[in-house]
Design a protein that fits this description.
This protein is an alpha/beta fold and 420 residues long. The chain contains 14 helices and 18 strands.
Length: 420
């Protein structure tokens, strides 16, 4: 690592801030599509979170980007890891995280996941297991679990919010706040070492949702108080928003921290936060090459070699990701849709973008691809997944090679092999 490891950097790194020459050189050297993760930016994002929440335990929600390069960087920076599956747990431990800094969050966990987590917990009693259903607690008990336990609570709070959460799929997560004290007592009776309560409001934290965040945290504080247990931590989850639109202001972390502290209202327990995207979103770009340009009527469509299998958020959630042309000469601007190579009409990276008139061979950079990019990539259309290059100051390294067609058929070709 070069430079000051504690530098917190600017509050947001815009797509325009990436060095165009460097991105073009990376695409030339490693081909496209290509994910580029800047590990110094990951460090800066961690440092900014740690500075805003100086007394908190800061965990990285691994599912945002489980690459070993990211995990090693954040372990080294001092973060812990929040893992949502056996696979993430295995990767976090492999990357070197101390089990004392690792939480496993069980969401309707398949038996294999629970078996694995219980084995890890038996071997490393410092691991924390979070569960949000009575069934999961029973299944942990059946496996002889007596380790550190945290209860995931469904806050179900907020005016105008209650209807959605009482009927919607949101109830998938956590036990209702008004049952929490009862469930916590049950877990303690079963011999679990009850250490914390948890809530993660999937909707995300943004400037106009601070009230909602405060309500969630204050419900959690009520649960902690009512439990009568001497809890070690209160985990308020992740969901720290990043500006996906270029003109959107970055999240005011200090404001979030202040609201969080206010809502905890003197609770004598460590505050735990577990953002995912905040650490990695603006640390990553996706590079893609235009191979087809169509102009039909008023519409211009740029067909690129990356699409919904590379970055699914636009297709899946209608999410906006900034797109920048890396063309070297200046051109008139056009209204462009950027689409991918998959035979699906949802295979879109961005619509209605003002971009320099695209030409075949142009390079495009897609911003905020460091979170839920490669992690949600698929081989749909039998398309091998792209490589990942990690930048670390003066170094650049392929940390995940480009897949080949052989990778796509690997499980077929080895179907007779015993399960490893
Ligand atoms: C997904 C998830 C996170 C991280 O969410 P971000 O929006 O990436 O910050 C944190 N905690 C839990 C339990 C999650 O499921």
């Amino acid at each position: 690592m070069s430079g000051d490891g504690n530098a917190t950097g600017p509050a947001v790194r815009r797509l325009a801030d990436w060095e165009a020459d460097e991105l073009r050189a990376l695409a030339r050297e490693y081909g496209t599509p290509l994910y580029v993760d800047d590990l110094e930016r990951v460090r800066e994002n961690h440092a900014r979170l740690a500075a805003a929440f100086p007394d908190a335990e800061v965990l990285f929600a691994v599912k945002a980007n489980a690459g070993r390069h990211v995990l090693e960087t954040l372990d080294d920076a001092g973060a812990g890891a929040e893992c949502a599956s056996a696979g993430e747990l295995a990767r976090a431990l492999d990357a070197g995280f101390d089990p004392a800094d690792v939480h496993y969050t069980a969401v309707n966990p398949p038996a294999e996941d629970l078996d694995y987590a219980c084995r890890v917990a038996a071997e490393h009693p410092a691991l924390t297991v979070t569960a949000g259903a009575r069934d999961t607690i029973e299944r942990l008990d059946e496996r002889g679990f007596t380790g550190r336990f945290c209860l995931r609570v469904h806050p179900g709070v907020g005016a105008g919010h209650s209807e959605e959460v009482s009927t919607g799929k949101d109830v998938k997560f956590g036990v209702p706040a008004d049952e929490a004290a009862d469930v916590l007592a049950d877990a303690a009776e079963r011999g679990f070492d009850v250490v914390g309560v948890h809530a993660h409001a999937g909707s995300g934290i943004s400037a106009d949702q601070l009230e909602e965040h405060e309500a969630v945290v204050s419900t959690l504080a009520d649960v902690a108080r009512e439990s009568g247990l001497d809890l070690e931590f209160v985990d308020v989850g992740g969901g720290f928003g990043v500006p996906y639109h270029e003109d959107e202001a970055p999240l005011d972390l200090d404001a979030v921290a202040e609201r969080t502290r206010a809502a905890l209202d003197g609770i004598d327990a460590t505050l735990t936060i577990e953002p995912g995207r905040y650490f990695v979103a603006d640390a990553g770009v996706l590079l893609t090459e235009v191979n087809t340009v169509k102009r039909v009527g008023d519409a211009t469509v740029a067909g690129a070699d990356a699409g919904m299998t590379t970055l699914v958020r636009p297709a899946m959630y209608g999410s906006h990701h900034p797109i920048r042309s890396l063309a070297t000469e200046s051109r008139a601007t056009e209204n462009v849709s950027v689409v991918g190579p998959v035979c699906e009409s949802t295979d879109v990276l961005g619509e209605d973008r003002d971009l320099p008139a695209p030409e075949r061979g142009d390079l495009l950079a897609v911003g905020n691809a460091g979170a839920y990019g490669v992690e949600m990539a698929s081989q749909y259309n039998s398309r091998p997944r792209p490589a990942v290059v990690a930048l670390g100051g003066e170094t650049r390294e392929v940390v995940r090679r480009r897949e080949t067609l052989a990778d796509v058929t690997l499980a077929e070709d080895t179907a007779e092999d015993p399960y490893p």
